[in-house]
């Protein structure tokens, strides 16, 4: 592989085929494109970075890479928490951050979106039309639609409204040989041919580079009512979540353990109860009187599970404050040191057991593991923290990381619910999928990318 900043004739040819300033080779400029949020220590040095502004630019870049057998690492905002946008030595980093167009069509309740558009920008563009794009990963203010599609991102609202794939109606993708294909369209119903569209959702840049996405929008929901409950321990909070699953359909059901609550209060004091063992934040956006009825059911579930206090409010401003406390958990935990971010998902009825095992792992390995969760759908985000530069701390964190993945498998769950496999979890993927399914995946990938140039090291 070529070293950083190599600028031989092949790169000169690429630069000549693209607009001025689209190709970066200077190490000082390419450095920002080496890492994503995982900050993997073995991130490589790209041969070049292409900042594409159109599908034609992407086709040119991928075609050039295929001709010279240069690995391609697609990238949006670089908010991956699994190493999926990490550069390797001699690669071409292909950034779609400049492809930010958004066109909303109220008549069909769709939006045609560039892969570099921020998730928050799509929500903002839909709102004046009385429409809403539901998927809302914790990074929605800074993550891109292309990255959300590539990882099939979820978020806080997916307990009721589903994940990214439920809102992707169509897309344009540049394949590994530089061809541009269109999959799906703007109709909700479309069963023509094999369902290839969904194959690319969650493929983490290993099958093609997304250049346009058609998203389904829905009417804005009614203002939500909010319920907040404190518990003495995470097991009681998890028991309340399990009970709610049989009796209610919350639009949000989030959990923070004591360590996560403490991290939020240290980072941005919000008056949360530091003495509690766990905090549940739930919302209902059911219409009319059904909202208060659903909140009452959820409150009853909490009380029966042993909640030490339960608070309900119909004030949207007050509800948003509790929601912001949940959203602050990510930055608050990151401020505590170096972090390995986990993302397992278990059947909801296994939540109590899974959380107890994670607490035991923290004690066994002497690690700090604050836990937040999209509890309503069993998606747990333990964050393993250690002091920066502490190699022994990193070693214990990595051991804890592997042990938590095993918890997911033992509980009949998955090693990743929404962040993707990336580079950080690929060693555990065979344990979940098995040899036959792994082989099927390799055959699909080989058919679409026979040279193996698209995001090598991710998934397989």
Which range best describes the helical content: under 10%, 10-25%, 25-40%, 40-55%, 55-70% or over 70%? 25-40%
- Number of DSSP helices? 16
CATH architecture of the domain at 102-219: 2-Layer Sandwich
- In the CATH scheme, what's the topology name of the domain at 102-219? Uridine Diphospho-n-acetylenolpyruvylglucosamine Reductase, domain 3
Please outline the major beta sheet. 8 strands, antiparallel
Task: Give start-end ranges of low-pLDDT stretches.
Answer: 1-8
| Number of DSSP-assigned strands | 19
Structural class: alpha+beta
The CATH class assignment of the domain at 102-219 is Alpha Beta
Rg over C-alpha atoms, rounded to the nearest angstrom: 22 Å
The N- to C-terminal Cα distance equals: 20 Å
Q: What's the shape?
A: globular
Strand content: 15-25%
Compute the average pLDDT: 95
């Amino acid at each position: 592989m070529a070293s950083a900043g190599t600028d031989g004739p092949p790169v000169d040819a690429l630069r000549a085929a693209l607009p001025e300033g689209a190709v970066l080779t200077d190490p000082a400029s390419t450095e920002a494109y080496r890492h994503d949020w995982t900050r993997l220590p073995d991130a490589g040095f790209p041969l070049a970075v292409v900042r594409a502004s159109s599908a034609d630019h992407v086709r040119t870049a991928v075609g050039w890479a295929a001709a010279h057998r240069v690995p391609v690492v697609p990238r949006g905002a670089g908010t991956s928490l699994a190493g999926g946008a990490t550069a390797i030595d001699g690669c071409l980093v292909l950034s779609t951050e400049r492809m930010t167009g958004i066109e909303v069509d109220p008549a069909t309740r769709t939006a045609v979106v560039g892969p570099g558009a921020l998730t928050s920008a799509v929500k903002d563009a839909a709102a004046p039309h009385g429409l809403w794009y539901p998927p809302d990963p914790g990074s929605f203010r800074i993550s891109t639609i292309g990255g959300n599609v590539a990882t099939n991102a979820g978020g806080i609202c997916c307990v009721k409204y589903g994940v990214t794939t439920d809102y992707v109606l169509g897309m344009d993708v540049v394949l590994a040989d530089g061809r541009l294909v269109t999959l799906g369209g703007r109709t909700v119903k479309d069963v023509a041919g094999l369902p290839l569209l969904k194959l690319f959702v969650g493929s983490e840049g290993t099958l093609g580079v997304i250049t346009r996405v058609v998203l389904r929008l829905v009417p804005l929901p009614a203002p939500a009512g909010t319920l907040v409950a404190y518990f003495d321990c995470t097991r009681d909070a998890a028991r309340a979540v399990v009970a709610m699953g049989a009796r209610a359909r919350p639009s949000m059901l989030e959990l923070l353990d004591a360590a996560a609550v403490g991290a939020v209060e240290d980072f941005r004091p919000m008056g949360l109860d530091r003495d509690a063992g766990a905090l549940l934040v739930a919302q209902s956006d059911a219409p009319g009187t059904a909202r208060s009825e659903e909140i009452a059911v959820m409150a009853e579930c909490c009380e029966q599970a042993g909640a030490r206090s339960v608070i309900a409010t119909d004030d949207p401003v007050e509800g948003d404050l509790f929601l912001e406390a949940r959203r602050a958990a990510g930055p608050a935990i990151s401020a505590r040191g170096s972090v390995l971010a986990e993302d397992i998902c278990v059947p909801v009825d296994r939540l109590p057991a899974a959380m107890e095992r994670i607490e035991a792992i923290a004690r066994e390995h002497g690690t700090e593991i604050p836990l937040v969760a999209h509890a309503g759908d069993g998606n747990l985000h333990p964050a393993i923290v250690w002091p920066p530069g502490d190699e022994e701390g990193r070693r214990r964190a990595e051991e804890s990381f592997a042990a938590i993945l095993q918890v997911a498998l033992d509980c009949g769950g998955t090693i990743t619910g929404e962040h993707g496999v990336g580079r950080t979890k690929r060693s555990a993927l065979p344990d979940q999928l098995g040899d036959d399914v792994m082989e099927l995946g390799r055959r699909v990938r080989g058919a679409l990318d026979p040279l193996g140039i698209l995001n090598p090291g991710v998934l397989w």
